[in-house]
Amino acid sequence: MAGVAPAGRATALGRHCRASRSAPRSSLASPRRAERGSRADGAAPDRARIPPHRQSARSTNAAPDGCPTPAGEVDMRLAGPLRIVALVITVGLTWLVASILLGGPGGGFPRIQQLFAGPESSVTAEPRARKYKCGLPQPCPEEHLAFRMVSGAANVIGPKICLEDRMLMSSVKDNVGRGLNIALVNGVSGELIEARAFDMWAGDVNDLLKFIRPLHEGTLVFVASYDDPATKMNEETRKLFSDLGSKNVKDLAFRDSWVFVGAKGVQNKSPFEQHVKNSKHTNKYEGWPEALEMEGCIPRRTTAS
Fold first, then answer.
1. What's the predicted TM-score (pTM) here?
2. How far, in Å, are 11, 14, 52, 62, 72 from residue 19 at the CA level?
3. Pair 224, 259: CB distance under 8 Å
4. Smallest Cα–Cα separation from 151: which of 131, 126, 176, 172?
């Protein structure tokens, strides 16, 4: 039957391939036996008389046409294990690279950042010192007010007055100006009473006098200069600040830097005062001395009248 021929041929081919595998050396008969077989079959004797050592690799090792070669079967058997070995090697290399980059357990991403950072940033940074109220390096004792003041820098950067972590005057608050920047504070509660700036170059000194004449006992006075603090000062102004505890106000001159904390009714000169003269030989800025910075702790008043 024509329809059955392919299946029978395939079956015969399979048997032929299995037979050839089960007897690998049977095809290598001796020359005489090969010659007799060829004569009996009517094949050409010249081909049978080829010496065995002249046989090609295909005639000795290869399977008959249409059958899979033994080498192909070996490759098929090795393909699975080779893939597993390649996968293990890939995973191992990945783990090794990750361990180097991450710096081992607990290393984390800082190790990666160090690889891309400059030499100066790889140095271990010292822990920052803790800052207290108004940026002081140490806390103030009980019943004391922490403060920090900075005078103006030339006529560019305005002054700052901080008390108990509250900024009383600054350029950010937009309540500072050229001349004297003064904040009045209740010496008992530490609450701000009033803050104003007085132009001592083109302003009216009487405005300043009206501001500081009626002060009550125990009122704290914070003063920070900016640009020019003294051109419009007169004797009465200097005496009033001297009564508040200033020892440098009598020498205050054009474009000097000055910071001062005084109080109404003090008996001695205030320990909270700094003054730098305007001098072309020592000025930090062209036409102005350096800015001053002062910080400390002021005892609270027990009562105020």
1. 0.59
2. 12, 8, 21, 13, 18
3. yes
4. 176
